Amino acid sequence: MRIEDPKFVAALAELDIELRSASSLTELTSLSIGGVTDLLRIKKHESIPGLLSLLDSHDVPHRFLGGGSNLLVSDGELPWVVLQLASADPDVVLEGNFAQVDAAADLGRTVTYCAKHDLGGMEGLIGVPGTVGGALRMNAGAYGMQIGSYVREVKLHRAGTRRIEILSGEQISFEYRHTSFAPDDMMLAVKLELPSKPYKEILQGIRICNEKRRSSQPLGQKSAGCIFKNPPGASAGRMIDELGLKGLSRGDARVSDRHANFFVNAGKASAKDMLGLIADVRERVHSAFNVELEHEVVIWA
Ligand code: EPU
User: What is the rounded average pLDDT of the residues 283-290?
Assistant: First the structure.
């Protein structure tokens, strides 16, 4: 979708929104899949209510993009514009055991920055790509921990009230890869409370998680992490593997040889290829195990 009306373009500039015309979502997602649309970069949180009113008054639908690392976007000309927060500088501010983190901050860099200041707890998240906002929205977790456990406050733009609000950790429910935020709520910043730990000890934990991840996940390849959620008490990856589906492909979309719940883009896969592969694997798991796998990856179709 293109924004061409000069009045609209001028109103965006007034709100300090950067318009990047005809942006390709292949460059904004870790899967390197997705069509083309206008990208609106938000430099100041305060401009969000004005931006949303502007989009509404011009009947321009939108989607909100984080780091693009858990996302599968459809091909071709996309029927909505994409909003993305530009990162603040600095994006992490520490005070005692609290870390005030901008939602656009890179998750891995945040974990290491806190570690260097003797704040631990998030070792398991090292190697999870994406932004802190994205991790927060879906309660990212690994190796027995989840980010939600450390959240004390969240600054967000609420879809319901159309205002910027601050919620306390107790007002939010964090479950397995799920939170109580509304789909259109925009994460803006988070206050984490992290346990004190000497850097050396945190580093050891980080090394162990890195090693585990390297040995079991296709890190150097284009993927969106796990495609399906684990059903209660079971592992989607193990089920897909047991069916002998590693290496199964549609075009350049392929079930990873390393971890069967990672589907990789081995070249120039289209969303159609990837969606077809996902549907195929889901169907086969259903026939074999009578289990309906739920998508973990977010699909913008
Ligand atoms: N397994 C296989 N074959 C495979 C993959 C896994 O047999 O192809 C077996 C493993 O040997 C192991 C079991 O399945 O016995 C579980 O595998 P793993 O330890 O890799 O964990 P997972 O349940 O597949 C979950 C998360 C990952 C997270 C890891 C580590 C989900 C859907 N996946 O994977 O998160 O990194 O644990 O904590 O919750 C993600 O969210 O995108 C993600 C990758």
Answer: 98
CB of 98 closer than 6 A to ligand 1? no
When pLDDT is cut at 50, 70 and 90, the band that residue 295 belongs to is very high
Atom in ligand 1 nearest the alpha carbon of residue 296:
32
Q: State how far the Cα of 265 lies from the Cα of 235, in Å rounded to an integer.
A: 22
Secondary structure (DSSP) of 77-143: B-SSEEEEEPPPSS-EEEETTEEEEETTSBHHHHHHHHHHTTB-S-GGGTT--SBHHHHHHTT-EET
Which of 208, 261, 293 for a ligand 1 pocket mutation test, highest count of atoms within 8 Å of Cβ?
261
Q: What percent of the chain has pLDDT over 70?
A: 100
CB distance 237 to ligand 1 below 6 Å: yes
Mean pLDDT of the chain: 97
Sequence letter at residue 70:
N
| Interatomic CA distance for residues 138 and 125, integer angstroms | 13
Structure tokens at 274: 């990837």
- Residue-level pLDDT at 100: 98
Q: Given 114, 226, 250, 254, which residue is catalytic?
A: 226
99 lines ligand 1 (CB under 6 A): no
Q: Annotated catalytic residue: which of 158, 177, 213, 258?
A: 177
Q: Specify whether the CB–CB gap between 82 and 68 falls below 8 A.
A: no
- Is 177 an annotated catalytic residue? yes
**pLDDT tens column, 209-253:** 999 999 999 999 999 999 999 999 999 999 999 999 999 999 999
Sorting pLDDT into bands at 50, 70 and 90, what band is 38?
Answer: very high
70 with 134: CB under 8 angstroms? yes
